[in-house]
Specification:
Layout lengths: L1 E6 L2 H10 L1 H4 L3 E2 L2 E2 L2 H6 L1 H11 L2 E2 L3 E5 L5 E3 L2 H4 L20 E3 L4 H12 L3 E7 L4 H13 L6 E3 L7 H9 L2 E2 L4 H30 L11 H16 L5 E10 L5 E6 L6 H11 L3 E14 L7 H12 L3 H13 L18 H10 L45 H16 L5 E12 L2 E12 L3 H4 L16 E13 L8 H10 L7 H7 L10 H10 L3 E4 L4 E4 L1 H9 L3 H4 L1 H15 L5 H21 L13 E2 L6 E7 L2 E6 L9 E2 L9 H10 L20 E4 L6 E4 L2
Parallel strand pairs: 1-5, 1-8, 8-9
Antiparallel strand pairs: 2-3, 4-5, 6-7, 9-10, 11-12, 11-16, 12-15, 13-14, 13-16, 14-15, 17-18, 19-20, 20-21, 21-22, 23-24
Helix pairs in contact: 7-9, 9-22, 9-23, 12-13, 12-17, 13-15, 13-19
């Protein structure tokens, strides 16, 4: 009898086979031994090979894999075909029990796992999916759909190195140990369905008469509401002028500095009069204060802080940062990415020390300061929940093999692992309060006296030092002038700052300990925020502009928030409390029934408010190039992994219609509109074969029954 190991992806299955050889034994693929070196050198080829055969095995173990989610919840119409028309869905319809189905197009992968799970040659299943709520959920729903009853062990890894895999296999626990995590995954999945897919159907019917799909959700709507709130503040903002009085002083040694009067003036004449009265006076130092302040390196990365940082320094979208860290993790080069911790445990200190001794070959700054196991800014068991911070492993990559994004993200993870070992930067802060006839003018200055960790980042600070003065020292006044200042509107969110908002529910948090406490009350999680922001853009609710990727709501997004009568869904703190309660389910402090009772209550409240509202959305095209031939939703231009395409706004409800590039040519918006309306375009030029050679012009033809787009060269 053998044990079946189920990884979340083919690449992870290969890494388990390669780095688990000392405990699992050798595995061969197409007659070739699977080793770490050939997995890293021939990743794509080996992934294709293992996908074709479905698993690898030896005398004791079979290693197979999912491909992310293989099973999903039923859509409403799966329970009753009449529900394809959302008007037919009863107001009190909530499935009990929820049913599941294999995702279309993934039947082959599921059937492979089901067959292996039910094999008489398999005695036990080992869940080796990602070590988090989502990974547990992916395995659990596959296991249940396959109607498997065999005992389950849970492999829990922080990294995919040989050392960690061996440790994880030796410390495996029964699957039941993680029952609360599985329950939380179920609650998240079903609550998102109720407050997402189901409530979307009801909102669409009640607010737009079914003419425009209005996607709502527990998290997405709260984030959109905040983006809209800031936009409305900007639209209604009227800049106002005020005036500061700035005095220029000169010490006896001849050093000049400026001070600003502590009160502002609304009237420019009053500011002038005030300055004129003081011009011929003498200034006196009322108070001179000097203080050295330590500025410590930011802590090790968790997924949220890494996403924020990469968005700020490289304008990298959060989903791309997550993709890069996931790939680095699967290759064994960094630790588990979806962590909410910024620290490591004492048990990981030796691993950190081993890694730190090696990364000097990538970044020589690691040679300057050694790792101290007693450094509480790195090692703190009390601040680690499921997984430690994202750090490099001792398995260093060949940088030339990494993608551009992977290399960029990896190098920043390395820098952070080094900078936390450096001493604090120290700045000398000066404050002078200069009095003129009792009126105080404030001056501030700062100078770096110890570079500390900033050296790792080549940060150069501005020297704004003030002169050395003494209390009661007299200074001469060499000028007083009025300075016009305009009030500024609140800053719109960027991709980076909206993630900060989501993490803290909008609270301004500077203290690191408080930030740790607030994580469980944020909107979404480090693992989901990237997809939430992507969903807002995919649904046509928000867009980004400029290098910093400033977020703007679309007209469609503003209309939804202004018309939606369910305030709870628009409230960030309410959403954060729901996330906090879900974390309590994960800890066994709140039951599934208690959590779902709150979800159903919110759904029923939402339905009641939707039924009572008289407000309706007047449907506008909002960038639409036409209607979907399959579901009548709007077709809009989108950006995908492989470039621009036209997609259906009803994709989240199962519609897969798209107009993609054909022979290297994407239709213009005008051409796409004609295709959707008339079923064919005029002849289109610019078509090319795969080798780049030109093709003759052709018509794009749409089959409105199947949604298929073809070329007609006749």
């Amino acid at each position: 009898m053998k044990k079946l190991i189920v990884a979340e992806k083919p690449k992870v299955a290969l890494m388990l086979a390669a780095n688990g050889r000392k405990i699992l034994g050798d595995f061969k693929l197409n007659g070739k031994l699977i080793t770490k070196d050939n997995v890293l050198k021939e990743t794509k080829q080996l992934e294709q090979q293992i996908k074709r055969v479905g698993f690898v095995e030896n005398n004791e173990y079979i290693i197979s894999f999912a491909q992310g989610h293989l099973v999903e919840l039923y859509q409403a119409y799966d329970y009753d075909q009449s529900y394809k028309n959302w008007r037919n869905i009863p107001d009190n319809f909530i499935p009990n029990p929820f049913k599941t189905k294999v995702i279309k197009g993934k039947e082959g992968m599921f059937n492979n796992l089901e067959k292996l799970m039910k094999s008489t040659n398999v005695s036990e299943i080992i869940n080796a999916c990602d070590s988090d709520r989502e990974g547990n959920s992916i395995f659990s729903i596959i296991y249940t759909q396959a109607n498997c009853r065999k005992p389950v062990k849970r492999l829990w890894t922080d990294e995919h190195t040989e050392k960690d895999i061996i440790k994880a296999f030796n410390e495996m626990k029964d699957g039941s140990y993680y029952e609360n995590l599985t329950t939380a995954g179920y609650c998240r999945m079903t609550s998102d369905w109720i407050l997402g897919a189901l409530l979307t159907a009801k909102a669409t019917v009640e607010l737009s008469g079914g003419k425009e799909i209005l996607n709502v959700g527990r998290v997405q709507t709260a984030v959109l509401s905040e983006i809209v709130r800031i936009e409305e503040l900007n639209k209604n903002f009227k800049s106002q002028k005020y005036y500061q009085v700035v005095a220029k002083f000169k010490t006896k040694e001849g050093t000049v500095y400026e001070g600003v009067y502590e009160e502002n003036f609304d009237d420019p004449k009053k500011a002038d009069d005030f300055g004129n009265v003081l011009k011929n006076k003498v200034g006196k130092i009322n108070n001179y204060n000097v203080e050295n302040k330590n500025n410590y390196s930011p802590p090790l990365f968790d997924q949220t802080s890494l996403a924020i940082y990469m968005a700020k320094i490289a304008s990298l979208d959060p989903d791309k940062t997550l993709d890069a860290t996931q790939s680095l993790y699967e290759s064994g080069h960094t630790t588990y990415p979806r962590t909410a911790s910024n620290y490591i445990t004492k048990s990981k200190a030796d691993d950190f020390a081993e890694m730190y001794s090696k990364i000097a070959s990538i970044n020589p700054f690691a040679k300057k300061h050694s790792f101290n196991k007693n450094n509480k800014r790195i090692v703190d068991d009390s601040k680690v929940s499921s997984h430690p911070a994202i750090i490099p492993t001792a398995e260093l990559p060949l940088l030339s093999r990494l993608s551009f994004d992977e290399k960029m993200v990896y190098e920043e993870i390395v820098k952070r692992a080094i900078s936390v070992n450096f001493p604090a930067a120290t700045d000398r802060h000066q404050t002078i309060l200069t009095g003129i006839d009792g009126f105080l003018f404030k001056s501030t200055g700062k100078k770096e006296i110890e570079q500390g960790w900033r050296e790792v980042y080549s940060i150069i600070t501005n020297d704004t030092s003030l002169p050395e003065v003494k209390n009661n020292e007299e200074v001469s006044i060499i000028g007083i002038e009025k300075k016009e200042v305009k009030t500024q509107p609140p800053k719109r969110y960027t991709i980076a700052t909206i993630i900060e908002f989501m993490e803290s529910c909008g609270r301004k948090i500077k203290d690191e300990d408080m930030r740790q406490l607030m994580k469980e009350k944020g909107i979404g999680t480090g693992a989901t925020r990237a997809n939430i922001l992507k969903g807002l853009q995919d649904h046509g609710y928000a867009t980004t502009k400029g290098k910093s990727k400033t977020l703007y709501p679309t007209e469609k997004g503003e209309r939804l928030i202004n018309i939606l009568p369910v305030d709870e869904l628009k409230n960030a703190e309410f959403t954060g409390e729901m996330e906090f309660k879900l974390s309590k389910v994960e800890k066994g402090q709140v039951s599934k029934d208690e959590y779902m009772k709150d979800v159903v209550a919110l759904y029923n409240t939402s339905i009641s408010k939707l039924k009572k509202t008289d407000a309706k959305i007047v449907t506008k095209s909002n960038g639409s190039v036409g209607k979907c031939p399959l579901c009548e939703s709007d077709i809009v231009k989108r950006k995908g992994k492989f470039g621009d395409f036209y997609g259906c706004t009803g994709w989240n409800n199962g519609c897969k219609f798209t107009i993609n590039k054909v022979c290297g040519k994407l239709l213009t918006e005008n051409q796409a509109s004609i295709l959707l309306e008339k079923g064919e375009t005029a002849r289109v030029s610019g078509l090319k074969k795969k080798d780049g050679s030109k093709l003759p012009s052709a018509k794009f033809v749409l089959n409105k029954q199947t949604g298929e787009v073809t070329l007609d060269f006749n």
